[in-house]
């Protein structure tokens, strides 16, 4: 007797954990984009993300110092000669969350481990639509690594330097948990150049570390939850007694991503930062240093969220709709006016700011042509601004400034076109409007740097950018050439404007021995430039070249009229990069050359920093199937790279030659 067989089991639905955002928008094709994949991030001559990104010609921090030697508040990032300000004019984003410091707009680079990132996309050009306001010069979009496996490395380097990294990804319930941690320390180098240093100058040690955890779990076949947490610590000394500083931070975010017929994402986040920083005054022959100020606490926070929906459209159409909001709050709690080593006054300066916006962007592709247009409108507000100063001994109120609430509306827009001509040639063009809020630091906190002092300005207006670009890309086989011309006008540009020369007493800052400045809105900064790149791959060999040339000019009237026609501070005309690499299996080697042209330290173009050329190198060699020997060299020829200059003649340098060797164990 035949017995019926049981029915077969239903097919199991395979759910893949990705940890990714929505696909890149079609509109982004109209912009110049440089992508750093995982290999470029890990097999680099440096462990620091800020230095890796400087391979993009035209990308710069406020100063040439890197994130191990420069002051944390000078780490703003920008592109296309829109520098001259410590606050970022490029929008840095990690997994959909903006990363600028809520109080000052600078970037805490030690929080980001390059080896824990899957990709970084640098999109040059203003007018970000879906990422929110702030993208005057472009967007730096970082994506976390989300893979099963493990990797660890340990390296030792010059000046008692140590660096270590650990990544692990493993299943947790139905999802994937990843943990990425990194740490580094060094006894540091003397930042002041040999010819201008004195007995008081000493090495500038640092220690830093971060840990990031991420849990990615499917909620349905086409919905994924991504939960992330980040904590970091950055401690360093600036090479003079009484100049230690420490930054602590923590982030948390939740993102839901839907990849069904209706694509959508929703993100919410919170950020917390606290800076402690001490400042010193050094006498003319650099034999003595005295403490002049102590920011004993600069607490700040940022909270926000965003929503994006991509409804199903007809073939060739893409539509993006959404909105976002960000609220920031922070204050600087500062001791100053030191007498016989003790502070006599206390200052509290800070406030709140917020933006809320809605956006829409559409793209249409027909044949070889893609057209796109998008816009957003934002409401901005600045409130609870204050600058309060008291005598410590008596509690007497010396200054009690409270500023009225201000608000307004700002538009953002961009339009682009991409034409695939054929035979590997693509033409593109774009036009855009963008804007940036002044930071709480720019609005409310005065500060000192050496003998110079800068007053705040609570009535700063948002910066506004209008720009256009056109480019061509040719790609065939293993070669790609790209050329882009652009023109930007940054209206109401915020700059530190020199208004007087000490010694003397000036409003808002008191006695000043050097230059007195105030943050002001300039009429505009006009920038025109051209960027080019070439990538060639032949077998195991690769060649990458990049160049940026810009002409930037300040347009200014009134108290800033002395700046009219000058070049903005901290903006070199020329940037060149060249890299040659060899990669065969687990063996690899590369040499990177970078040239940055001369630039001016100050707004009056009196302090010139000469151009500099550096050579870096990287090599890896397998010892076993999973174990590699790795070597890195930063500034291999030990070139002197002048990073800053004071009105008293002191010159600061960037990192000298640094050699690293270590081991990397990988199980990917």
Compute the number of helices: 3
Secondary structure: helix percent: under 10%
Q: What portion of residues belong to β-strands?
A: over 45%
**Low-confidence segments, ≥5 residues, pLDDT <50?**
none
Query: In total, how many beta strands?
Result: 40
Number of folding domains?
Answer: 1
| CATH architecture tag | Beta Barrel
Largest sheet features: 22 strands, antiparallel, barrel
Name of the CATH first level: Mainly Beta
The helix/strand class is: mainly beta
Description of the molecule:
With 668 residues, the chain is an all-beta fold. The protein has one domain (26-666): TonB-dependent receptor, beta-barrel domain (Maltoporin, Chain A, Beta Barrel), CATH 2.40.170.20. Helix content is 2%, strand content 60%. The protein contains three helices and 40 strands. The protein has a 22-stranded antiparallel β-barrel. The N and C termini lie far apart (54 Å). The model has no long low-confidence stretch (mean pLDDT 92).
Keyword list:
Maltoporin, Chain A, 2% helix, 3 helices, mainly beta, 668 residues, signal, cell outer membrane, tonb box, 40 strands, 5-stranded mixed beta sheet
């Amino acid at each position: 007797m035949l017995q019926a067989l049981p029915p077969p089991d239903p097919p199991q639905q395979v759910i893949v954990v990705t940890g990714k955002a929505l696909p890149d928008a079609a509109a982004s094709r109209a912009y110049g984009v440089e992508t750093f994949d995982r290999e470029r991030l890990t097999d680099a001559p440096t462990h620091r993300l800020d230095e890796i990104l400087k391979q993009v010609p035209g990308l710069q921090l406020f100063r040439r110092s890197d994130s191990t030697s420069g002051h944390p508040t000078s780490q703003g990032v920008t592109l296309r000669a829109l520098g001259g300000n410590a606050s970022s004019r490029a929008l840095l984003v990690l997994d959909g969350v903006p990363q600028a410091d809520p109080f000052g707009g600078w970037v805490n680079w030690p929080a980001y481990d390059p080896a824990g990132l899957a990709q970084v996309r640098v999109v040059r050009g203003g007018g970000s639509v879906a990422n929110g306001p702030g993208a005057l010069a472009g967007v730096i979009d970082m994506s976390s690594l989300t893979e099963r496996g493990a990797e660890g490395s340990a390296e030792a380097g010059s000046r008692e330097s140590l660096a270590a990294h650990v990544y692990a990804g493993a299943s947790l319930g139905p999802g994937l948990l990843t943990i990425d941690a990194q740490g580094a320390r060094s006894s540091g180098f003397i930042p002041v150049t040999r010819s201008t240093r004195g007995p008081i100058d000493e090495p500038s040690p640092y220690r830093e570390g971060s840990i990031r955890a991420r849990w990615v779990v499917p909620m349905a076949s086409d919905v994924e939850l991504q939960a992330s947490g980040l904590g970091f610590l950055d401690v360093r000394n600036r090479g003079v007694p009484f100049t230690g500083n420490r930054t602590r931070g923590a982030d948390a975010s939740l993102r839901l991503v839907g990849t069904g017929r209706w694509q959508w994402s929703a993100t919410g986040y919170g950020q917390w930062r606290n800076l402690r920083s001490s400042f010193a005054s050094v006498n003319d022959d650099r034999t003595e240093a005295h403490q002049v100020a102590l920011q004993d606490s600069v607490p700040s926070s940022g909270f926000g969220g965003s929503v994006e929906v991509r409804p199903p459209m007809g073939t060739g159409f893409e539509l993006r709709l959404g909105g976002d909001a960000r609220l920031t709050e922070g204050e600087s709690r500062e001791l100053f006016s030191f007498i016989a080593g003790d502070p006599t006054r206390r200052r509290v300066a800070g406030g709140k700011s917020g933006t809320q916006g809605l956006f829409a962007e559409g793209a249409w592709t027909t044949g070889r042509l893609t057209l796109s247009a998008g816009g957003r409108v934002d409401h901005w507000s600045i409130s609870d601004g204050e600058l309060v100063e008291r005598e410590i001994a008596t509690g007497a109120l010396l200054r009690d400034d409270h500023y009225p609430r201000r608000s307004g509306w700002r538009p953002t827009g961009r339009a682009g076109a991409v034409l695939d001509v054929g035979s590997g040639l693509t033409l593109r063009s774009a036009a855009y409007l963008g804007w940036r809020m002044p930071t709480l630091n720019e609005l409310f906190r005065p500060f000192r740097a050496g003998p110079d002092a800068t007053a705040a300005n609570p009535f700063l207006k948002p910066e506004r950018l209008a720009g256009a670009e056109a480019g061509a890309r040719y790609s065939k086989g293993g070669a790609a050439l790209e050329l882009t011309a652009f023109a930007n006008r940054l209206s109401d540009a915020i700059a530190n404007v020199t208004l007087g020369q000490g010694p003397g007493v000036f409003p808002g800052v008191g006695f000043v021995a050097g230059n007195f400045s105030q943050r002001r809105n300039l009429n505009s900064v006009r920038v025109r430039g051209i960027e080019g790149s070439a990538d060639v791959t032949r077998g195991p060999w690769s060649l990458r070249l990049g160049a940026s040339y810009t002409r930037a000019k300040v347009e200014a009237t009134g108290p800033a009229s002395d700046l009219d026609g000058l070049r903005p501070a901290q903006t070199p005309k020329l940037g060149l990069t060249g890299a040659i690499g060899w990669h065969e299996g687990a063996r690899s080697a590369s040499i990177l050359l970078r040239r940055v042209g001369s630039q001016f330290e100050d707004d009056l173009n009196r302090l010139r920093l000469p151009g500099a050329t550096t050579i870096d190198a990287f090599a890896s060699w397998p010892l076993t199937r999973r174990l590699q020997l790795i070597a890195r060299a930063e500034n291999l020829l030990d070139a002197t790279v002048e990073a800053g200059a004071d009105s008293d003649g002191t010159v600061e340098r960037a990192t000298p030659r640094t050699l690293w060797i270590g081991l990397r164990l990988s199980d990917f």
